[in-house]
Design a protein that fits this description.
This protein has 436 residues and is mainly α. Helix content is 75%, strand content 0%. Among the domains are: 38 residues, no CATH class; 127 residues, no CATH class; 74 residues, no CATH class. The model has no long low-confidence stretch (mean pLDDT 77).
Length: 436
């Protein structure tokens, strides 16, 4: 049982004892079995946030101070001043490891400060001694140097900075897929730290932010590095990617009570719906080849293999996770994750008929909306019902604006949809009051 479940169980024990469901002896044995649940206090979270902000401000302040009258200083003075903050950052990190090894706030703050000082030192030394290099080389060197801090300091902010950095680096080579594709093995370096952070405590702000940054960076990097060898492949790659996010977010490791704490599931679901909704428009399929960002036909043979391998791995992961949910008979969950399979079918049949892809995704969104509404009614869940109703309303409104229907009919349909929202919520509210 996860920590949140244990906390809930401990809160329920006094009521269960009062009602005679459990004896005091049994409750004591339950507490003894699960042990004490340690949680990070609000004060600790505030210390981590304030410490990180303080480190950022100090680091930026030092950089600005050096920038003032920098050119008037001698080369030796500039070199010493460039390396001094780096030495201070290293000393601070060593002191934290020695004196405050259990303090997340000190470790995150000192690791963030040292990460900034590494970048500042590289930039200033390069400028002082006129070391040649481009922005991409600078960013990659900086990121590779700070990534070990995530493991040495057990700090997630350097890992987050690293992910953002290699994503920016990948973006500088969007027109050179042979280099941009290296984002994926570089990003894989953070996986052990990510798994460690989840095992430590999956409910903390740290792991939530790290998950969110990972999802965003991987999404951008996919557009920079994948699908450069055949036209229109993005229409399969991105649904597969968001499907993987969504299904991973449904695993036990990410079953958390609030949406902000489960970015994999939330962003995956939103991304899948937005993509499926886009696929209901004719212009997407008519101009599919025009949206091939950074297309490069010069890539072929063995140079194209990394693109194909990573793309096929993402698609295969999405299909396998979908199959796992179908095998578990989780129809509502698996239905949302069916977008990649439908995208593959629509991609293959688009040459035979321009209408078929539109029909596939219009019918799919209609069925998905109804399934959400039905699931909400069965569980008496307002949020699920309203989500389904909203999805259905968006689909209906889009089709009416997309068709040659008079404004009177459109207005009447909007009124009917609005009344449907109110009536549905009123019926559900009555059912819930009757169940009490």
């Amino acid at each position: 049982m996860n920590k949140m479940g244990i906390k809930w169980l401990y809160q329920e024990l006094p009521e269960l004892i009062t009602r005679g469901i459990l004896t005091q002896e049994t409750a004591d044995k339950i507490r003894q079995y699960y042990g004490e649940v340690k949680s990070i206090s609000k004060m600790t979270v505030m210390l981590i946030i304030l410490g990180t902000i303080g480190a950022l401000l100090i680091g930026l302040g030092i950089i600005l101070l050096f920038a003032h009258n920098w050119e008037q200083l001698s080369r030796l003075t500039r070199a010493v001043l460039s390396l001094a903050p780096l030495a201070i950052g290293q000393g601070l990190a060593l002191w934290v490891l020695w004196k405050r090894p259990q303090s997340s706030a000190f470790k995150e703050g000192s690791a963030t400060f040292l990460s900034l000082m590494v970048g500042a030192a590289i930039a200033l030394i390069s400028q002082t001694y006129n070391i040649p290099g481009d922005a991409g080389t600078f960013i990659l060197t900086w990121m590779l140097l700070i990534m070990p801090l995530a493991y040495l300091m057990q700090a997630s902010l350097p890992a987050a900075i690293y992910l953002i950095g290699i994503t920016v680096w990948s973006g500088t080579y969007w027109d050179n897929p042979n280099k941009a594709i290296l984002f994926w093995p570089l990003a894989a370096i953070t996986i052990p730290h990510f798994i460690w952070a989840l095992r430590q405590e999956i409910y903390t702000l740290r792991t939530t932010i790290l998950s969110l940054i990972m999802v965003i960076c991987v999404s951008f990097a996919a557009s920079f590095s994948l699908g450069k060898t055949w036209h229109g492949s993005w229409i399969i790659i991105f649904p597969s990617l968001y499907s993987v996010f969504y299904f991973l977010g449904r695993l036990e490791v990410n079953k958390i009570t609030t949406n902000w704490q489960r970015p994999l599931r939330l962003i995956g679901a939103i991304g899948l719906f937005i993509l499926a909704f886009q696929f209901t428009f004719r212009y997407i399929w008519q101009h599919l080849d025009d949206y091939s960002y950074g297309m490069n036909r010069n890539i072929s043979g063995i140079n194209a293999l990394p693109d194909y391998i990573i793309t096929l791995a993402i698609i295969a992961a999405a299909v396998l996770l979908f199959y796992d949910q179908v095998k578990r008979k989780n129809i509502t969950i698996s239905l949302l994750g069916a977008v990649p399979l439908l995208a593959i079918i629509a991609y293959l049949v688009r040459g035979q008929s321009a209408i078929l892809p539109l029909m596939i995704f219009n019918v799919y969104l209609f069925v998905l909306s109804l399934s959400r509404i039905i699931a909400g009614f069965r569980s008496n869940n307002f949020a699920v019902i309203n989500t389904g109703m909203l999805m259905l309303a968006i689909l209906i409104i889009a089709r009416f604006f997309d068709s040659d229907v008079s404004f009177i009919i459109k207005g009447l349909v909007f009124i009917i949809v609005g009344v449907g929202f109110l009536v549905t919520n009123a019926i559900l509210a009555r059912r819930m009051r009757g169940a009490k």
